[in-house]
Fold this protein.
Amino acid sequence: MKPISAPKIPKYLKHPAFGSKEIRDLFLIDKTITFLNNGSFGATPKVILAFQNAIRERMEQQPVNFVKKQLPILLRESLNDIAPFIGADANDLVFVDNATTGMNAVIQSLMHSWKKGDEILTTNHVYGAVRTTLQHAMNISGARLIEAHVPFPIIDEQECIDAVIGKLKKSTRLLVIDHITSPTGIIFPIKDIIRACKKRNIPVLVDGAHAPGMIPLNLNELGADWYTGNCHKWLYAPKGCAILWTHPKHQRMMHPTVISHWYNQGYSKEFDWTGTKDHSAYIASPLGLKFHAAMDSDYLMMAFHAKAIAMRNMIAEAWKTNAPSPDYMIGSLASIEAPKHLQYDGEDAFLYAEALHDILWNEHKIEIPVIPFAGKIWIRISVQVFNRLKEYMHLAEVVPTIKRSHVLKMLKRLKS
Ligand SMILES: Cc1ncc(COP(=O)(O)O)c(C=O)c1O
C-alpha cells in the first residue's frame, strides 16, 4: 500500500508564542472574532485538514479496495501511534466518533445486566448528554441513578473524593466519573476514586472527553475499567475522532452502539467496522498528535495550565468574584462566576444563560459558553495556542457592561 503523504508540520512550533500571528495563521478560526471556546468542539489546524482531505481523495480513487483492504491496517497503525501518548496498549483501544459514542457504547453494553435495586453512581458535574444516556439506561434496566454532590466552588480534591466515596454502596454497579468536568472545568482526582472503587469491586467508567492533549495521561496505570476521550478537542484531530479504552477483562462483552457484520468477533474487529462512513478523521489523528508534539507536549500542557490560571484570576478580579477551585485542579478550562448583577437562579436558567451567550456573540462577537450550575451563572474560558491576551481582556471588560434588563429582554424573546 502506497503511504498517503502527510503535509509537513512547520518547524517553528516548539514552545509557541500563544496568540502570535504565525500561530494564528495555522488555524481557520475567524481572526475578527473573540473565540474563547476551544472546549466545546476543538479547532483543527489547516495542515491536519489538508491531510484529512488527502485521505479522502485516496479513498475515492478505489473505495472498495480502500475500505476492505487498506482501512483495517490504517486504523490499527493510527491507534499504534496514539497509544504511547496516552499510556495505553493499542490492542485496548478503538476509535469512536466522539466521547458521547464512547460513553454510550459502554453503558449500552452494560445496561442489560442491571436490574431493579441496582445503583449507578455519577456526580452532579456529569455532562448533560451522559446524564440523559444514563437516564435511558435506567428506564430500560430499572436501576437507579444516584448523583454524588461535589461542591463548586471547591476547596480541594478531598471534597470530591469524600463526596463520591460517601455514595458507594453494596448495590453500586458502576461509577461514571468525569476526568475533566464540562460545566465547571475542573480536574477530578480520579486515581484516588478509582482505587477506592477497586477495593469495593465497583467498576469505573471515566468520561475523559477533554483529557487527551490537555493533561498527561497514563491509562495503563490509572486502573479504570473503561476510559473514553476526544482527540478532536485538545489533540488537534479533525472533528469526529475519539478513543475508547477498555480493560482486557471487559473486552469480550463490549459492543459498539451500532452492530454490524462482525458481531461477537472481537473488540477491535467489531468497533473497526460499524457500517459505511468517513473514517478520515481517525486516520488523520496521528498528525494532530504530531502537531501537539512539535510544540513540545509537556511544555504545551503546562503552558495551557499557567495561562488558564492567569486569565481566570484576571477576569475574576475584574468581575469581583473569587477563583472557585485551587490552581492544581485546572487544565486549560476555567469556569468563572459571572458578575453579581448577571446572576440568575430561575427555573429557566438554561435559557437565561443562552440569552447572555447570544448577547455576547451577536453584539460583541465573543464566543464563550455561559453555564448555569449549582444555582449560579458561570462563564467558562478555554486556552488554546491561537488565543491572545486581548481576547480575555475584551471578555473581562464587556461582561460587566451588559445590563441585566437586556438579558431578561433577550430571555423573553427566546421564550416567545
Ligand atoms: C465531559 C464531557 N463529556 C462528553 C462530552 C461530549 O463530547 P462529544 O460531543 O465530542 O461527544 C463533552 C463535550 O464537551 C464533555 O465536556
